[in-house]
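hi! just following up on the protien thing from before. the input was this:
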Amino acid sequence: MNLRDAAGGADLLFRQLFDAASGTYTHLLADVDTGEAVLIDPVDERHQRDLGLIDELGLRLLICLDTHAHADHVTGSWLMHQATGCGIGLAAAAGAANVTRSLRHGDRVVFGPRWLEVRATPGHTDGCLTFVLDDRSMAFTGDALLIRGCGRCDFQQGDPRRLFASIHEQIFSLPPHCRLYPAHDYQGRTVTSVAEEITLNARLGHQASEEAFIEAMQQLQLPPPGRIAEALPANLRSGRPRPEHGPPAVPLP
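and the predicted 3d structure came back as:
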């Protein structure tokens, strides 16, 4: 496998994967010269698909990153760690167990000569992170900023004032051409951009005020996430099954 050919001749291989059950996007990035890769927001039920792709492409997965402690699906980070020995990265603010790298604002996650800049974007949850590619051409916003919307703020220490500030200071400050990849879209859209969201996001764009945003978020009457009772405790273990349900654990490096 010529990885550069697989990447369309580019230095960076990028794949966007989708879990229809939870509407979650998983993102794979790899440096074509070294084959070193990172996987963002894996879903446990798609573990075999993701692992198969990584094996087919001959990549060396360095770390699985979660943008936050998800409430709608169980992360695949633990399963991938068990299969490949990769690290597990999550915000220190999430307070999860089994994390091999606790991430903080300003950290860098390096793969080959490339890196992802870690930006804290709390508001949906305390521990939400956005990962920004080194050349600022791409950013992975998790549930903080969605396409024409944003994450809810009514659980996991959600705070609309913090979310408004996070998005404006950490995401809308990126170059207008920066492509944004959220963790979900329920209408089949796969990517947006900073310019697009500043112009067209009715909640958060340049036509929206902070007070109007806070009022709108406080008035949302949304049902709880369907799998929160199962997913949140599991994700606070980084997806590791309870001992009676899983194989013997490999010690974390």
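The first strand starts at residue 12 and ends at 19.
The CA atoms of residues 82 and 251 lie 9 Å apart.
cheers
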